[in-house]
Amino acid sequence: RVAAEAAAALDLCVMADGTRIEIVANLANAAEAGRAVALGAEGCGLLRTEFLFLDRDSAPDEEEQRMAYAAVAAGLGGRPLIVRTLDIGGDKPVAYLPFPREDNPALGARGIRFSLARPDLLAQQFRAILAGVPAAQCRIMLPMVIDAGELAAARVILDEARAALGIDTPVPLGVMVETPAAAMLAASLAREADFLSIGSNDLTQYALAADRGNPAVAAKVDALHPAVLHLIARAAEGARAHGRWLGVCGGIASDPLAAPILIGLGVTELSATPAAIPALKAVVRQLTLGDCEALAERALAAATAADVRSLLQRTA
Ligand code: PEP
Ligand code: MG
């Protein structure tokens, strides 16, 4: 809970019962940062750093990366910035990083798996982030994690990068929960991570065994499917057990209709596309935590995604 006047002055998002929910933006480049703030973003919950690496002939060097991250941080005017480490893999090929061909790129060497296979590139990205983003704003997030072993391995590389730059203060390091494994092991991850954020696009794809990019199964890929909601509930329990916060940075975070369920499950940060932020804030400000928790309870008991959606229609 925060004082009402302070929240209003900063345009923070506070529910009708005083519960604080952070509404931040997903960004894919520096140009979007200022626009997101103008639309009410309280910071950035997911900077997809792939923009720096795709559609070019050679990798950006450390200085180019540093300048790009610094530009995003400046655009946010001191607000928190969560930089996600590179999430490329077999399905997002880059000519200058030869990937072996994979039959199942979605199940392949993507995200943190690629980064730990190329620790030189991960170390370089960590240094560029640490040098580019002011410490007070800086948080780092790892994609496609399945267990605390990967987090520990990345933290060793991050600590080396901090040492190389002479940075003593720890930087918050979080993980995306976008594999069912990470959701199941959320308590173990939360013991070591500073925060967790649900990547609902991939979490839905992997939980429902339905390719997020395949139009033939598009109707199946619904993040409000009860199976996905149970994984989010599990992640929230794990985060709570270790006093960590849980956010959502997948597409479902931009849907005002889904917000009461996510908040009721224990989510306290929603990272949305900038354009969705004004409507999202307006909706969240009308909600109370008790109502959201009751709704989430009923959604968890639903049998199908359609049942969850009709529950939402009835209570909207
Ligand atoms: C997600 O999977 O929900 C996510 C936010 O990551 P991306 O969409 O970049 O895979
Ligand atoms: Mg993802």
Automatic annotation (TrEMBL):
Sequence similarity: Belongs to the PEP-utilizing enzyme family.
Organism of origin: Sphingomonas alpina
Domain of life of the native organism: Bacteria
Protein name listed in UniProt: phosphoenolpyruvate--protein phosphotransferase
Residues of the full protein shown: 505 to 820 of 820
Annotated gene: ptsP
Subcellular location: Cytoplasm
